[in-house]
Amino acid sequence: MKTILNIIWLILSGFWLFLGYLLAGVLLCITIIGIPFGVAAFRIGLYALWPFGYTTVERRDAGAPSYIGNVLWLVLAGWWLALTHLVTGLALCLTIIGIPFGIANFKLIPVSLFPLGREIVPTDQPFATR
pTM of the full predicted structure? Predict the structure, then answer.
């Protein structure tokens, strides 16, 4: 079932969201300071490309640098990526078939706003990293 949902997701919105994260990652990797943010963009982009079957968990070892980095991320790329998820989610919710995919987009908004200090894990192991 996850595979079918992921294929439909890929066609409806996953590919375009992935391209947005890819663009953000490339732009952020231009400077040395932005490389950790670019890596986070690539990581979340892969999650946005194929989200069903995976979830995010907070990393316990993430400290103050993650919080500071999330503030910088919010200013640099997070707000417009979250806006993309919001608009895409609203558009998908206009049809009955698109409602689950719209809800999945809404669930990606917190991850797109604050990606540092989170880890993407399979849904059958959400507490394995804790």
Answer: 0.83
